[in-house]
Amino acid sequence: MLLAALLALPAAAAALESDTEISGYLSAWTQDCAGASCALPVPGERNRPVLLRLALPAAPGEVSTVRVSRTLSLGEGLDLPVEITFYAVCPYGGAPGTCAGRYFQAQAVLSGPAGAFCASALNAADFFPFPVLMCAGTSAGGRRFGVTLHRQPL
User: Fold this and answer.
1) Is residue 60 in a domain?
2) Which pTM was predicted?
């Protein structure tokens, strides 16, 4: 009986370490903000697919991450390197073995023509199947360079 219980432990632990799919798109854009008001954004590369698996933490204080790096074309010979990190967070304070209040974060780091850092903390309904987020940095001339995370093709 003891042997059967010990052999079942790895299977039970594996069931708690489930993961889920994150699926969406990245699109790059520029925007001229040099004048009194900003012009409409001009699309660069659109609808670059992203498909990842994110583990879901099961105990208070645990976090899991998955990261994607892409270089998107802005047109005009310009590229926008993008690094996005997705987090699943099980907050402290819950009962051991449970994950009440699990939340998610999406963080984007842009480099290249204009650097930026953008982030958002989301509940599951806002995070899945893919978080919606815009992130942009401004160059010295007032031109913005950005990326949009979106769920449906543009």
Assistant:
1) yes
2) 0.85
